[in-house]
Design brief:
The complex is a heterotrimer of chains A (316), B (331) and C (328). Chain B is built from ten helices and eleven strands. Chain B is an alpha/beta fold and 331 residues long. Chain B has a seven-stranded mixed beta sheet. A four-stranded antiparallel beta sheet of chain B has the order 2-1-4-5, covered by helices on one side. With 328 residues, chain C is mainly alpha-helical. Classes of the chains: A mainly alpha (316), B alpha/beta (331), C mainly alpha (328).
Chain lengths: 316, 331, 328
């Protein structure tokens, strides 16, 4: 039927090899119609820039304990002070540097592992693929945070870098599964078989034909992995498993909790770091709305120019 | 006498990124009961859109529809949603293309029948449903035990037969068939077509049979409508279809010449050079202008005349089979 | 039937894998951390217990495979060691006390979350482009990005500290003793509201978005259109034709989803001092009580795996394509 035929054709067109220039047109078309990815990009840039330019945005040292403790927000201290007399705004800015970079770093590791462990074995096939797939499935069902907690408990000297490594090394399974199934379906497609038959080496087929068509999937994976990593890092630090003397959004919340911020009504200490994490996560998800629409045309929004009557229920 | 199905000045346009694109332009046709009208056209000619428009299945934010669809005198587009729901299947039913996907994978065949019957006959008993289902399956020459199966357990041919049986479940008077055998192999195709012909004869159904295969349709239908670029180019009847090829619309001639013949004198097979027009930029004159071997200068700018009637040809260069006049004018 | 056996096989394999990870981890770390721990507790526990610890954590000269077999043997027989924090209480006893609290909290919260999330997902997809579809998906993305523990803190602050609507900690008032009486149960529910609310708010977004996206895909399928053409009622189409097919992909991702929820529940318990497995796990980590930590990790992993297995069975019931063979 028309609908299925319509969208089938669209889908086929997207999954077939697309040239670079028309890919750019696709993305800009989506951005124009759906504002959400744009909002996401703006929010993310705001955080990244404020973290990068921290010294320009605050005169204080984040660890300096020289101010009046638990002071409410004021002109001198935009976000007030902590129980030890540190300026919250400075902590927020400098802490953002580490939280964001740890998040991206861990997300990157997890995605790289997912690409290697997901694509390669499934492409090679045979027992390599079956073993790896089972291993991936097992790693998927083992609950993440408890595992992270146990691992960091054993490692006595933890810091942002260790945490990033641990998160990256345990967080690849979800991406690997998705990339594996996509690789499997792609390697059966005609254009890949054709290139194999025409004598391309396996490596070239992998990097030249399959990988370019999974790009949007890999990017989506990177986005999710980063969100998850930022959350995981903050959770571990909140529990006190990070290095408490390093200022990050997570350790801020750790100190806020142990410093009885709530009972002292110091909302300015608790709200900003958590809200920042939530907003960064939100921005990445919003960006992902756009990435989603690149890989799955059915989700694309069609801004219809003619008058649209609001539909009640699907039947016409 | 009210026609079983009457399509009156149907215009359908789709909403796209580039604005409204027409798919059907001023299509009119009618089918009497106990008649099969074939609708032939190449991919993209608008034939599937036709089927969906007639059943009023196009969503308001997907396409605009103008015109009237009269099923035994009742305009489907004037009905309320609830009236429409009840009229569907009871008055007019449809056999979908690609029955591969027409059946819900998580429900058994029996549940499909049960759903259909209960939706229209809420008081029907369980026993009656089972009996009717077995009966319908028998009519399409399937083992009644198939009712217990799920869609993925049946072959393509069996699924198509189930879809046909479902279409007949409420004894409709009008039946739409959209490429019902395209996805099947030739042997199964033949037997299903024979069954369709038999069912139509027995129940005196009005059938709109949509296909891209002219020779297949000419063997089955009483009349054949030929569609191109969203317009009806010609309606001919079975007798005339076998006769002299040159008495038909140039596009129809192309279709007839493109099919191989098993018997009869040797003819060379020719395709029709060129491609259908881009519907977002349709020229004002005849849409077949670019590919027509008989084209005249006026064909590019003068729109084709609107025609009604049981058989006709819409062409500036061909004589109308009814009136015999070379350049057609408004009837 | 083969389907059930396959899933059972996977369950057993994963259980074994979780147990093995538990065994391998302390031995993988540079400079076996258990040595320090054992050193700390040397004077406080019996020599027999000390020796058991050494064996359990590999601070010994017995060959690795022998340690492994002993470990598995003890595991299967329920000898999960003695807790060091609560010495000499066995780990299994502490688990037995904390498990019901976590199961209750996570179980109820997840059921609510799934039910409401899936329903809302169905409705927003059915009325695609409507006003709810403009708000809910974006809102869900936001709530899904909220850190569990932060949401817990905010709820604690607003609804507990500031407005005094709900208690701020623990599973029940310290003045009451656990019993199956109405006052106790209502007190217990009263204490459970904030933690449960945290979990529901955080996890509902995922279900909603997943279901909505699946529904959008499913609504474009031919069998839904065919059902509509047959004059079926909207409700029937929405649930039996669209939703029932749309929910299947969500179920295959259930294990991961539950893993996240458990992690979040863990953090929530810590914030509210709710005496479940998560709360105990953190305490164990802070006290370097490795036996307890290992036991808790295992039981958490096991619970997730079993829950996933049950959902997979349910999937088998809902999707006839998994059953294989003819239904004659």
């Amino acid at each position: 039927m028309s609908q299925a035929a319509h969208t089938d054709a669209e889908q086929a067109a997207v999954q077939a090899p697309v040239k670079r220039s028309s890919r750019w047109k696709e993305w800009s078309g989506i951005l124009k119609r759906d504002k959400r990815p744009l909002v996401g990009i703006v929010i993310l840039l705001l955080f990244m820039l404020s973290a990068a330019f921290a010294p320009l945005l605050t005169p204080y040292n984040p660890s300096a304990t020289q101010f009046t403790p638990l002071a409410a927000p004021s002109w001198h201290h935009w976000l007030g002070t902590t129980a030890s007399g540190q300026d919250v705004w400075s902590q927020f800015l400098y802490g953002g540097r580490i939280s964001l970079s740890v998040g991206f770093f861990a997300g990157f590791i997890a995605t790289a592992l997912a690409v290697i462990l997901g694509m390669l074995p499934s492409y090679l096939g045979g027992w390599i693929d079956t073993t790896m797939a089972t291993f991936t499935n097992i790693m998927l069902v083992i609950p993440g945070l408890p595992l992270l907690i146990v691992i960091t408990a054993y490692v006595h000297q933890t810091g942002p870098v260790t945490i990033a490594l641990v998160i990256g090394l345990t967080g690849w399974a979800w991406g690997a599964r998705i990339l594996r199934s996509q690789t499997l379906s792609l390697s059966r497609r005609d254009f890949v078989i054709a290139s194999r038959l025409s004598g391309e080496t396996q490596w070239r087929v992998l990097t030249g034909e399959i990988l370019p068509n999974m790009l949007s999937l890999v990017v989506a994976n990177l986005v999710f992995a980063t969100i998850a990593a930022i959350l995981a890092e903050a959770s571990l630090e909140f529990l006190g498993l990070g290095n408490p003397s390093v200022v990050t959004w997570g350790t801020m919340l750790y100190w806020a909790d142990t410093g009885q911020a709530l009972l002292n009504g110091a909302w300015w200490w608790i709200v900003p770091p958590g809200l920042a994490i939530a907003l960064v996560g939100l921005s990445l998800s919003l960006i992902n709305f756009g990435v989603d629409q690149v890989s799955n045309p059915r989700l694309r929004l069609n801004k219809v120019k003619a008058a649209r009557k609001p539909r009640k229920g699907a039947p016409s | 006498m009210t026609e079983a199905l009457s399509v009156d000045s149907l215009h359908v346009s789709y909403f796209t990124q580039n604005g409204l694109v027409p798919a059907l332009r001023n299509v009119s046709l009618s089918i009497s009961s106990n008649e099969i009208l074939g609708l032939v056209g190449e991919s993209g000619s608008g034939k599937s859109t036709m089927a969906q428009a007639v059943m009023r299945l196009l969503k308001p934010d997907t396409a605009t529809v103008d015109g009237r669809i009269l099923v035994e005198g009742q305009d489907l587009y004037q009905l309320t949603p609830e009236q429409l729901r009840l009229a569907r299947w009871r008055d007019i039913a449809m056999v979908f293309q690609s029955s591969m996907n027409a059946l819900n994978p998580v429900l058994s065949i029996q549940e499909h029948f049960t759903d259909t019957m209960r939706a229209h006959l809420p008081d029907i008993s369980e026993a009656e449903i089972l009996k009717r289902t077995a009966d319908l399956l028998g009519q399409v020459r399937l083992d009644p035990a198939v009712a217990r199966n799920y869609a993925h357990e049946l072959s393509g041919g069996m699924r198509q037969r189930v879809v046909i049986a479902l279409a007949l479940a409420l004894d409709p008077h009008v039946l739409l068939m959209d490429e019902p055998t395209t996805a099947l192999d030739v042997v199964v195709q033949r037997s299903i077509l024979d069954e369709i012909a038999a069912l139509q004869r027995n129940r005196k159904l009005a059938v709109l049979f949509i296909s891209h295969d002219f020779s297949l349709v000419s063997g089955l239908a009483n009349r054949i409508a030929v569609m191109y670029a969203g317009e009806i180019m010609e309606i001919t009847d079975r007798g005339m279809a076998i006769e002299d090829v040159s008495k038909h619309h140039p596009y129809t001639q192309g279709l007839m010449r493109a099919a191989p013949r098993l018997i009869g004198s040797k003819v060379s097979i020719e395709g029709i050079p060129g491609e259908p027009p881009d519907m977002s930029q349709v020229p004002p004159g005849c849409p077949f202008y670019d590919r027509c071997p008989l084209r005249l200068p006026m064909c590019r700018t003068t729109p084709l005349p609107v025609k009604t009637g049981r058989v006709y040809i819409r062409c500036h260069a061909m004589p109308d089979p009814v009136s015999g006049k070379a350049v057609a004018h408004d009837v | 039937m083969r389907f059930i056996l396959r899933r059972l096989g996977f369950l057993l394999l994963s259980l074994w894998a979780a147990a093995t990870i538990n065994f391998v981890l302390p031995r993988l770390m540079p400079g076996n951390p258990a040595i320090l721990m054992i050193g700390r507790f040397k004077g406080q526990i019996s020599p027999k217990a000390l020796h058991a610890l050494e064996l359990q954590f590999g601070v010994t000269n017995t060959p690795l495979w022998s340690q492994y077999l002993t470990y598995l043997n003890h595991l299967v027989h329920g000898q999960w060691g003695l807790s060091l924090t609560y010495y000499p209480v066995p780990v299994s006893r502490i688990i037995a006390q904390s498990l019901p609290w976590t199961l209750g909290l996570v179980g109820v919260a997840t059921v609510l979350s799934v039910f409401i999330g899936v329903m809302l997902g169905i409705f927003t997809a059915w009325h695609r482009g409507g006003k709810w579809d403009a708000i809910l998906p974006t809102m869900s993305t936001f709530t899904a990005a909220l850190p569990y523990f932060w949401l817990a803190l905010i709820l604690l602050y607003l609804l507990g500290y500031l407005w005094h609507w709900f208690p701020m900690a623990h599973a029940y008032s310290s003045t009451l003793t656990p019993a199956f009486t109405l006052p106790f149960i209502s007190n217990m529910l009263y204490h459970a509201v904030l933690p449960a609310l945290t979990i529901v708010i955080s996890s509902i977004g995922g279900w909603l978005l997943g279901m909505r996206n699946n529904m959008v895909q499913t609504l474009g399928e031919d069998y839904v259109l065919f059902g509509e053409a047959r004059g079926l009622k909207s409700n029937r189409l929405m649930f039996q034709y669209a939703a029932r097919n749309a929910i299947l992909p969500s179920m295959t991702g259930f294990a991961m989803a539950i893993g996240f929820v458990v992690g979040g529940a863990l953090l929530t318990e810590v914030v509210f001092s709710y005496p479940g497995l998560g709360y105990q796990l953190l305490a164990a980590v802070q006290n370097e009580d490795y036996p307890l930590m290992q036991g808790l990790f295992l039981i958490i992993a096991f619970s997730v795996l079993v829950a996933n297995f049950l959902v997979e069975l349910l999937y088998g019931k809902l999707d006839p394509r998994t059953r294989g063979g003819a239904s004659q």
